[in-house]
Design goal:
CATH superfamily of the largest domain: Glycosidases
CATH class of the largest domain: Alpha Beta
Number of strands: 26
CATH architecture of the largest domain: Alpha-Beta Barrel
Helix content: 25-40%
Oligomer: single chain
Structural class: alpha/beta
Bound molecules: alpha-L-arabinofuranose
CATH topology of the largest domain: TIM Barrel
Length: 503
């Protein structure tokens, strides 16, 4: 039996939890938009062609801000193609995913869908194959009330009020050689600084995200952040991090410890930010927008799904449609724990992605929409993690991993909402063989009792929800909780994710 001990005290906080931590990402990629959230012929589709069943699931997931329209897609995107009368919108080749973009869904349609699901729009501009002027043009189109050619064009296109977009990404993964328009940190830093200054000249209220590294394992990691921030420190509000994890070579032990890598990634980027801050003698603090994170079986895309051929540019092909297992969901829940632990510096994050493409929600054309295993940790965490992250003291038995060395078998985080008095604890058991008994010392939370305990686990760690078996995996009430004085003890199965609600 694995044993762990967690002490929580609402007086010691890491920092407030920004609701933007529970953001997501919709890219024009595969069946995320077309045959995903948009399917005009579907029995649940509304007058605009948006699937009602998907809207309900997105609401249940509890997604705050949604990054759009890419991703790698954005580096070849002309935003003007996606507005105006649909019948005159061009069909374009999307070089990033070797597909055809019909532009049937564009900025106006997506903003309307966001109103239906109750999420905020976060836009990325193309700094790969376009530049400062096109970014300023888009900002004029979205944020200026009226009185200029572009803002009046928006009004003529049916949207009287400005979109009022606050969050803007200055390109996507510009450090990656796969990116259209990839450039050096020096070149990108200068372009991002110039674009940020221009955009702020138009609308000083916007919040800007400069591209950090596509992964902590890029050869330029660390130096990229230093150089890019040395050009942009006073111009931007966030630097991005992206990270995807997958089980490699059957090494489940290391995969289950993926959050160790995410913790390290975040702490390294914070160090890079604060180094530039010190060198510049700035009193401004830059935070992290972790605007792509998930489990993703990238090898499958590269070796099986990848589309090629001069005359082969399908519309909405099945791409990156990973089916997630229980183990994947446990890692995923642990990544959320890592983001929450760093709530003082990670103030925005986007789960990549939302529908069909490495997504918590899957759909079939003309058929059902269902929750993947990863849906559950996200929905519960976004609902329960309110207020502030607490500074906790966690002690746990450990295990040895091939990739990360000796790591704790149990990882956990606690949050506390002063306004409701509610406290939540999220934890994972990474052991593949043993149950874990986790004792939570709640001495500082006078008179608090356990309201609910939900666990995601299965005897078969590889169990998934699929079209044929949509509800194979779900949450179950964990009845093992024992309260003794001010200690609560919960027992959790091997390879599991658990949320406790205390109030
Ligand atoms: O989310 C899938 C892809 O992963 C995005 O388009 C890109 O930004 C990243 O490499």
């Amino acid at each position: 039996m694995v044993s762990a001990h967690l002490t929580i005290d609402p007086f010691f906080t890491v920092g407030p939890i920004n609701p933007r931590l529970f953001g997501s990402f919709v890219e024009h990629l595969g069946r995320c938009v077309y045959d995903g959230l948009y399917e005009p012929g579907h029995p649940t589709a509304d007058a605009e062609g948006f699937r009602g069943d998907v809207i309900e699931l997105v609401k249940e997931l509890g997604v705050s801000t949604i990054r759009y329209p890419g991703g790698n897609f954005v580096s070849g995107f002309r935003w003007e193609d996606s507005v105006g009368p649909r019948e005159s919108r061009p069909r374009r080749l999307d070089l990033a995913w070797h597909s055809t973009e019909t532009n049937e869904v564009g900025l106006h349609e997506f903003a309307s869908w966001l109103d239906k699901v109750g999420s905020e729009l976060m836009l990325a501009v193309n700094l790969g194959t376009r530049g400062t002027l096109e970014a300023i043009d888009l900002l004029e189109y979205t944020n200026l009330a009226s009185g200029s050619t572009l803002s009046d064009q928006r009004v003529a296109n049916g949207r009287t009020d400005a979109f009022g977009v606050s969050m803007w990404c200055l390109g996507n993964e510009m450090d990656g050689p796969w990116q259209l328009g990839h450039r050096s940190a020096d070149d990108y830093g200068k372009l991002a600084s110039q674009t940020a200054k221009g955009m702020r000249q138009l609308d000083p209220s916007i919040e800007l995200v400069v591209c950090g590294s596509s992964s902590a394992h890029m050869p330029t990691f660390g130096e990229w952040e230093r150089v890019v921030l040395s050009h942009t420190y006073e111009d931007v509000d966030y630097i991005s991090c992206h990270a995807y994890y997958e089980e490699k070579n059957g090494d489940l032990g290391s995969f289950l410890a993926s959050a160790v890598d995410m913790d390290h990634f975040i702490e390294s980027v914070v160090a890079s930010i604060d180094h530039v801050k010190a060198v510049k003698g700035s009193d401004k603090t830059i935070n992290i927008s972790f605007d792509e994170w998930n489990v993703w079986y990238i090898d499958r895309y590269q070796n099986v799904d990848k589309i090629e051929g001069l005359d082969n540019w399908p519309v909405a092909p099945r791409l990156l449609e990973d089916a997630y297992s229980v183990a994947d969901a446990v890692v995923f829940g642990n990544l959320l724990i890592s983001l929450l632990k760093h709530a003082d510096r990670v103030t925005s994050a986007s789960l990549a992605q939302l529908v069909n493409v490495i997504a918590p929600i899957m759909t079939e054309p003309g058929g059902p929409a269902w929750r993947q295993t990863t849906f559950f940790p996200f929905a519960v965490t976004s609902r329960l993690a309110k207020g502030s992250t607490l500074e906790t003291k966690l002690t746990s038995d450990t295990y040895s991993t091939e990739v990360y060395g000796e790591v704790p078998l149990v990882d956990a985080v606690a949050t506390h909402d002063e306004t409701t008095g509610r406290t939540s604890v999220f934890l994972v058991n990474r052991s593949q063989t043993e149950e874990a008994t986790v004792t939570i010392d709640m001495t500082a939370l006078d008179g608090v009792s356990v309201l609910s305990v939900q666990t995601l686990a299965d005897d078969d760690f590889s169990a998934k929800n699929t079209l044929d078996d949509q509800n194979r995996v779900g949450l179950s009430d964990n009845a093992s909780v024992v309260t003794s004085g001010s200690n609560v003890t919960v027992t959790v199965p091997p390879v599991s994710w658990t949320a406790l609600e205390l109030g």
